[in-house]
Design brief:
By secondary structure, the protein is of the alpha/beta class. The chain has nine helices and twelve strands. It is globular.
Length: 275
């Protein structure tokens, strides 16, 4: 199924290997994968890494109040509704037509506790109440790039304001050597949060290819031993960087001001695209 949406052309493609599982692409770039019969299944490696962090922020099954910036096919909200029943989740997605497509063809369970909002992520965040979320998940891409206004120090401070004490910020980022964008994001969030963790494949961290990196930020130590164990057991194992390694990666970078913010780099041809 193909449909023009507000920010491109969306396509829903069934997975021939899993009944009632779907891949969502926008302009050929994979956005989400959803298995309606097994919402706890996270197909994309970056989504699995985000899921690992979500699994460690509280005891298993404890409901959370979560704000998602970026909706796609609502993969992570579905995951949390399945693994942490009773969670209250707000999803902010700028593309109304994309949300309509997803809700029409990949409907949410009636008791999912997920509320959808059509708005710009930064504008919605700035209007959100302080201390209102346990977790904030940012997975926003304009095309295949993180929008510039979601990369600045002012944005990071708004994220921290909305999080409760003990809250965790999560973001899906993408970059390649020399990691100018990624290093600037580490410097920006290190200026606001006391603890940072970066999760990515070794090949990405060594500069061998362009790829995703998951950033987690908090005012308290994150459970890095458990994260290291979980990510090491994935099909494509990842490294969990924290402490001295984060300081090494951040060296020489500075927090990003709104007026100098830029989107994440354009992926090279074929980095994320599908057929």
């Amino acid at each position: 199924m193909t449909r023009d949406v507000d920010h491109g052309t969306a396509k829903l493609m069934p997975d021939v290997d899993r009944e009632r599982a779907w891949l969502l692409t926008v302009d050929g770039a994979p956005q989400s994968y959803v298995d309606l019969d097994a919402p706890e299944h996270l197909e994309f490696e970056y989504a699995r890494r985000l899921g690992h962090v979500l699994d460690t922020v509280a005891a298993p099954g404890v409901p959370l109040d979560v704000l998602h910036l970026g909706g796609g096919a609502l993969t992570l909200p579905r995951y949390l509704a399945a693994t942490r029943p009773g969670s209250r989740q707000d999803v902010v997605e700028a593309d109304r037509a994309l949300l309509d497509l997803v809700v029409e063809h990949l409907p949410l369970p009636p008791d999912a506790g997920i509320t959808l909002h059509t708005a710009d992520a930064r504008a919605w965040l700035e209007a959100a109440p302080a201390d209102s979320a346990d977790v904030l998940v940012a997975d926003v891409f304009g095309g295949s790039r993180v929008p510039a206004h979601l990369t600045s120090l002012a944005y990071a401070r708004e994220a921290a304001r909305v999080l409760r004490e003990g809250g965790v910020y999560l973001a899906n980022l993408a970059d390649a050597t020399p990691f100018t964008f990624l290093r600037s994001q580490l410097a920006t969030f290190a200026a606001v949060f006391e603890e940072l963790v970066l999760i990515a494949e070794p090949a990405v961290l060594r500069g061998r290819r362009f790829g995703n990196a998951v950033l987690a930020a908090a005012h308290h130590p994150l459970d890095t031993p458990t994260l290291a164990r979980l990510t090491a057991s994935d099909t494509f194992p990842a490294r969990v960087e924290h402490g001295p390694r984060i300081r090494e990666l951040t060296a020489g970078a500075h927090p990003v001001r709104d007026e100098e913010a830029v989107p994440s780099p354009e992926p090279p041809g074929g980095a994320f695209g599908v057929g």
